[in-house]
Design brief:
This is Patatin-like serine. By secondary structure, the protein is α/β, with parallel strands linked by helices. The protein is about 40% helix and about 10% strand. The protein folds into two domains: about 100 residues; about 325 residues, Cytosolic phospholipase A2 catalytic domain (3-Layer(aba) Sandwich).
């Protein structure tokens, strides 16, 4: 067993021997390499074998403990990043449903703007509740933020500068955040309820303040509903919002930004003082600066693999897969040649040149601080930030989809969003399963240390899974595990 544990310490790492390289999955519409499948099966079986020997020798248990801590740094965590996009973000419901049904939904979910609505719903409802909720009929009843007539929204924009009323959106967002069963859920309470961790990105209204990634580490007592309402506050939709936190006595009050927000482990629940932040600070749409905050996720949560659901209307048309991607192989014999450039090398070179040149000029305008402000906002970040993940799921958009950006979905339209989102996710499923099966086995091994006692991080967890569960391709993700503060997750 000592030799087996040593071998696992060598091969359990991100993209061992390049198995996470998307080019390996771009030769067919489904499936992967048999060699990779055999390798993953062997790693999962070996981890289950290590789990079966826990408790036989205290020294061996200590080595397994060290192996798990090392694996967290080397293998890292997987995060599902859900972008904004108004009504187009409804495609992310299909992405979430496909991953949830296959038990491949990551335990860490980051949402921005409309994507935060999807993420908050996933992280405030248990698995049993999600089974009933992730249907076209249920979602179409809850997603009613754009129900006002157009003439009402236009009149409001001419008088107040925003199309919609935040007071009308608040109860609808609270309903999506499970307000009826669990009033005023905070980030920490949502994690304890479902075992899933939520991150929400918000941008400060004042231009010189840095954006924030709200989570149970940086803002444990902030209510999820107030964070979602802030991140959907696009300047022309609703006004910037204040964040609300729950005090120890259960009362709600404005949240003060702790001085240690950038060091999340130092921010104690309810921390913050008048001198360290501003209780009156207003926040708005996070996609203006950080739609997919990969750097912050890596720093705060040890994320090394990001699955991005990208639905932004200004990003999807510019995302051109010049070469075959996972689930979308070359479609002609010419494309299966040496270069495999879609449309030929010359056309691909022209597209890359045009996009690079546009980005260069936008960067120059921003660095010289001569970018014109529209609605008192610098919009250059919408085009200059990195929107992609290690795996990026992008739905095919048509003109009708753009026309529905500010419209509530009917059951029929919602069903289309779900179907298209699931179909695009299935193209990436073999690549995702390769990584997440190992992550599930590591999570099962970690849970085996608890079984009613303190686990590796001093927190209490659920029972240790059986060897059969650990070998199951779908075990682990989405299983509620109530933990007070667990830093060791996969």
């Amino acid at each position: 067993m000592e030799a087996l544990l040593g071998a696992l310490g060598t091969c359990v790492r991100k993209s061992f021997s390049g198995i996470d390289n998307e080019a390996l999955y771009a030769h067919c519409h489904a499936g992967t390499k048999l060699l990779i499948e055999k390798y993953v099966d062997e790693v999962v079986a070996s981890l289950a074998e290590v789990q079966s020997h826990l408790g036989s020798d205290p020294l061996f248990d200590e080595r397994v403990r060290s192996f798990l801590h090392r694996s967290q740094r080397i293998f890292g965590r997987t995060c599902l990043a859900l972008s904004g996009g108004g009504g187009l973000a409804n495609f992310s419901w299909g992405v979430a449903r496909a991953l949830f049904e296959q038990r491949l939904l990551p335990s860490l979910i980051c949402g921005t703007s409309a994507g935060a609505v999807v993420g908050a719903t996933l992280c405030t409802h248990t698995d049993q509740e999600l089974v009933e909720l992730l249907t076209a009929s249920q979602l179409s009843q809850l997603l009613t933020s754009f129900e006002e007539p157009r003439w009402v929204t236009i009149r409001r924009f001419l008088t107040s500068g925003t199309l919609y009323d935040a007071a009308q959106w608040k109860p609808k967002i609270e309903a999506l955040c499970n307000q009826a069963r669990h009033p005023d859920l905070t980030f920490q309470e949502a994690f304890e309820l479902t075992g899933r961790e939520l991150c929400v990105t918000v941008t400060a209204r004042r231009r010189h303040e840095p954006p924030l990634v709200l989570s149970r580490l940086s803002a444990p007592d902030v209510t999820v509903a107030s964070a979602v309402l802030a991140t959907v506050a696009m300047p022309f939709l609703i006004p910037a919002q204040r964040l609300v936190c729950k005090a120890s006595d259960g009362r709600l009050r404005p949240w003060v930004v702790p001085s240690s927000t950038e060091a999340p482990n130092a921010a104690a629940p309810g921390s913050g003082s008048p001198g360290s932040g501003s209780a009156g600070a207003e926040w708005r749409d996070g996609s203006i600066v950080h739609d997919t905050p990969r750097e912050q996720l890596a720093q705060h949560f040890g994320v090394s693999f990001t699955v991005a659901s990208q639905c932004n209307p200004h990003v999807v048309p510019l995302f051109i897969a010049l070469r075959p991607t996972a689930g979308k192989p070359a479609i002609s014999r010419l494309q299966r040649g040496r270069s495999e450039w879609r449309g030929g090398f010359a056309l691909s070179a022209v597209l890359v040149l045009l996009l690079s040149d546009a980005k260069k000029w936008l960067t120059l305008l921003r660095e010289l601080q001569i970018m014109p402000l529209i609605l008192d906002t610098d919009w250059s970040g919408l085009f200059l930030q990195d929107f992609m993940g290690d795996v990026t799921i992008i739905p095919p958009l048509g003109l009708k989809d753009y026309a529905r950006m500010l419209s509530d979905p009917t059951p029929a339209i919602m069903q289309r969003y779900l179907d298209v989102g699931q179909r695009e996710t299935w193209r990436k499923m073999p690549m995702l399963a390769t990584r997440l099966r190992i992550a599930h086995a590591l999570q099962a091994l970690q849970a085996a240390f608890s079984d009613g006692t303190d686990d590796l991080t001093g927190a209490r967890s659920t029972r240790a899974p059986s060897q059969a569960e650990a070998l199951s391709p779908g075990y682990g993700v989405g299983t509620p595990m109530k933990r007070r503060d667990s830093k060791l997750c996969f």
